[in-house]
Amino acid sequence: MSAPPRIVVLDGHTLNPGDLPWEPLSALGRFTCHDRTPAGEIVPRAADAEILLTNKTPLTAETLGRLPALKYIGVLATGYNIVDAAAARARGIPVTNVPEYGTHAVAQHTMALLLELTQHTGHHADAVRQGRWSQIQDFCFWDFPLVELDGLRLGVIGAGWIGRAFARMAEAFGMSVAFASRSGGRAELESVMRAGDVVSLHCPLTADTRDLIRAETIGWMKPSAFLLNTSRGPLVNSRDLAAALDAGRIAGAGLDVLSVEPPPPDNPLLHARNCLVTPHLAWAARGARARLLDVAAANVRAFLAGRPVHVVN
């Protein structure tokens, strides 16, 4: 009987900081999990791995060339650009991802950003803790305009699982929805962005979508409109969006992703007017992470059975 495969996770902490069992994966072979792996440690830690799992630790062609035992790469996420998939394919190594695990969690967080932009719930709760309500003469106060969603129009850029899940939530609040898809081209994108009271990005990062939100396209939006991005940071030109927010050319933005993560302190969006930035956590609800781990393990089981699934290369 052949020995169980050597399975190495390079950066397991983000997926599982300790609140999930690793057993779905650890039961499949000789298992080692590292919380994080710096670039210089990838080859030493993965030298004898047949099955290698990564979230954000890059696997370049040069690195793959130094891992002769490697037979399979599993990406612990949906996006897989962290791996040189073509180099892996040239060596006959399948690369798999985990699609759709975070649909509901990401849609929920997108709605949370929109509700905070329109109601400023966290801001007003903080104001109460600071004693401001106790100091006024009236029974209530607010210091931001409060925006009702019913009757507003949502433009969704990207018609995949998450975009459609968020659209259903918006419809439950009484919003109407229009989609701009890849096949619709520039004319459809411009039409959706001009009409939208809220524009929400749910599309992949490609050469065509990088800097999709820039000075030109922001200029299509209503001054009263809000922009949301829980998809990929480089879809947005940070400087152009910050300039538009500070000049009042759009009303606000809610972002869970930035072009560089973690962001440098001088990223202008960290200090832009009415810009909410959360630290790339839309996907991280425990239920979503548990699904991710279960599907990642199922991907490995399918590979070991000779029937790989969710192969992206």
Describe the structure.
By secondary structure, the chain is α/β, with parallel strands linked by helices. The chain contains eleven helices and eleven strands. The chain has helices spanning 23-26, 42-46, 61-64, 85-90, 103-119, 121-129, 161-172, 185-195, 215-218, 238-246, 286-304; strands at residues 6-9, 30-33, 51-54, 72-75, 95-96, 153-157, 176-180, 198-201, 226-229, 252-255, 275-277. The strands form two sheets. A six-stranded parallel sheet has the order 7-6-8-9-10-11, with helices on both faces. Strands 2-1-3-4-5 form a five-stranded parallel sheet. Helix 3 (61-64) links the parallel strand 3 and strand 4. The longest helix is centred in the C-terminal third of the chain and has 19 residues, at 286-304. The radius of gyration is 22 Å and the shape is elongated.
